[in-house]
Amino acid sequence: MKNKKGFTLVELLVVIAIIGILSTVAIVNLNSARDKARAASVQSAMSQLTSAAILCHDDLQNLTENGALVAPVVCTGAAGDQPVENTTVCEQDYTDATWPDLPVGWIYEDNCASDYTASTWSFTACEGTLVTCTAGGRTVTCSNTGCTSGITP
Predict the structure, then answer these.
(1) Which residue, 44, 88, 89, 128, is the most exposed by fewest CB within 10 angstroms?
(2) Domain limits at 48?
(3) In whole angstroms, what is the distance from residue 47 CA to residue 101 CA?
């Protein structure tokens, strides 16, 4: 009987199965890391807008959802008040700040609010579709009291 060296078919199949399982775990972890990076990017962009909101209110201006357009629409907190990316944040274009582009899968919620007489404002970005935020998705909300992020109920 010859002394054969090498791997049996069963051993090779076991190794292939293990490699498949490990690659699946790695892909799932990479997708999770991408989602977390997008959320961190949104939180950073939204946090930077707080300075612009403070400057607007200091100059007795409200936040606007479409400041670069002909007739600015002030954020009132009503449904439909959805900021438009790359338009100025303040009514009278007081700052160079614009509503930043959000990563793929994120939108501004349609309820931005601003009242410089009461020194209150808020705006929210969330994972969602072109129209509404996804229930149970991640959100980042900024207001005159600071920014918070989390999972919506």
Answers:
(1) 44
(2) 9-151
(3) 14
